[in-house]
């Protein structure tokens, strides 16, 4: 069996270091907002050649706190891609704002910059882009639009640690880069964790305040905050894995390249483009008979996933929150997309095995 993902195998190379770090953690006896969180924040900032990273509890909170940091007014509108994981849209709703969905480009699966202007109104305050599947959005036209209309830009980088557009890292374009370190992400903790990369010291200090009950100083609360601190133990594990992030990404890119070069043309594959350094959080293909293909692979002992089986506009939870429910580009991607094994836990031989079986599929 080739499973879609195996976290145990993925983390095996780090196990001894995790154990040693945990022993040190027990010894120290400092459990919340200690040295490990501060050091991880510094190291993750340095990875991006930036100064301000605030650790938070998870990726959803990273998005919510970024929005809250901007002091938008209730009912203000935020532009977001129709093709995303629901967390991005939930963050907007949880922050008291209105999500305005914009269709993706069918070639990149990411928000189509050309479709954004039609969605801008006098209530629009921000664009929340999502670098889906590990590929950056086309940030040049997006940043230009944001500047023209004075919109904040928040990047959902949950799937894009180390991804680049024109040589620049995901999370460093907008006002905020929101990261998740959920265990399956390219940089994954052993539990929930997240971070916000901020452009200004003021935003960084405010995110730190928001994550800790709105308090700047113990028991003094200036604003309404949350309990959304990055866990000290998770920070210590992330510090062990961060130096290997580039190696993890290189490995996933190598597997992706094997798929792209060897899968036959009955599958629609991700397009390569020199402007984009794709870190393949997910390697997906499109196929009109996706469900039958998924079943066929399962019968051949190959695990796959669908990201995502239900489009946001079809989620019952969102029925009172969206203005339109008609997003044909996104709907088609949701119907046809299939994610193939492409993890740090997989070998090239695993992927060549998957390719051999896939190329024998008769549609
Ligand atoms: C994983 C993910 C999130 C949410 O991250 P959590 O840490 O699970 O809260 C948000 N957006 C996208 C695109 C994701 O893939």
From TrEMBL:
Which keywords accompany this UniProt record? Pyridoxal phosphate
The keyword Phosphoprotein appears for this protein: no
A Pfam family in this protein?
DegT_DnrJ_EryC1
Q: Which InterPro entries match?
A: DegT/StrS_aminotransferase, PyrdxlP-dep_Trfase, PyrdxlP-dep_Trfase_major, PyrdxlP-dep_Trfase_small
Any single GO molecular-function term of the entry would be: pyridoxal phosphate binding
Entry-annotated residues carrying N6-(pyridoxal phosphate)lysine: 185
GO terms classed as biological process = polysaccharide biosynthetic process
Tell me which residues this entry annotates as catalytic: 185 (proton acceptor)
Per its UniProt record, what PANTHER family does this chain match?
3-OXO-GLUCOSE-6-PHOSPHATE:GLUTAMATE AMINOTRANSFERASE, TRANSAMINASE
Spell out the family assignment given in the record's similarity comment.
Answer: Belongs to the DegT/DnrJ/EryC1 family.
Task: Indicate what this protein is called per its UniProt record.
Answer: Contig6, whole genome shotgun sequence
Which organism is the protein's source? Answer: Pedobacter lusitanus
């Amino acid at each position: 069996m080739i499973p879609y993902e195996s976290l145990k195998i993925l983390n095996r190379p780090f196990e001894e270091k995790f154990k040693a770090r945990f022993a040190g953690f027990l010894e120290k006896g400092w459990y919340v907002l200690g040295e490990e969180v501060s050091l991880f924040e510094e190291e993750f900032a340095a990875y991006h050649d930036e100064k301000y990273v605030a650790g938070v509890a998870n990726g959803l909170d990273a998005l919510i706190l970024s929005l809250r940091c901007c002091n938008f007014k209730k009912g203000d509108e935020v532009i977001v891609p129709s093709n995303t994981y629901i967390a991005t849209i939930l963050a907007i709703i949880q922050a008291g704002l209105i999500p305005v969905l914009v269709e993706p480009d069918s070639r990149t699966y990411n928000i189509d910059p050309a479709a954004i202007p039609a969605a801008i109104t006098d209530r629009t305050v921000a664009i929340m882009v999502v670098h889906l599947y590990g590929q950056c959005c086309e940030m040049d036209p997006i940043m230009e639009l944001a500047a023209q209309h004075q919109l904040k830009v928040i990047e959902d980088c949950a799937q894009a640690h180390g991804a680049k557009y024109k040589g620049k890292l995901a999370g460093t374009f907008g006002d905020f880069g929101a990261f998740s370190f959920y265990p399956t992400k390219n940089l994954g903790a052993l539990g929930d964790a997240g971070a916000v990369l901020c452009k200004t010291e003021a935003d960084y200090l405010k995110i730190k305040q928001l994550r800790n009950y709105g308090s700047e100083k113990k028991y003094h609360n200036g604003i309404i905050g949350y309990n959304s601190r990055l866990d000290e133990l998770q920070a210590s594990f992330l510090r062990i894995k961060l130096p290997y992030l580039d190696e993890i990404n290189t490995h996933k890119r190598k597997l992706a390249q094997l798929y792209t070069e060897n899968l036959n043309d009955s599958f629609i594959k991700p397009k390569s483009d020199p402007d984009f350094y794709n870190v393949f959080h997910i390697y997906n293909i499109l196929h009109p008979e996706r469900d039958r293909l998924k079943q066929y692979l399962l019968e051949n002992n190959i695990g796959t996933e669908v990201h995502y089986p239900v489009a946001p506009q079809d989620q019952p939870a969102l029925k009172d929150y969206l203005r339109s429910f008609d997003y044909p580009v996104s709907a088609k991607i949701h119907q046809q997309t299939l994610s193939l094994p492409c993890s740090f836990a997989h070998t090239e031989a695993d992927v060549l095995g998957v390719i051999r079986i896939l190329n024998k599929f008769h549609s």
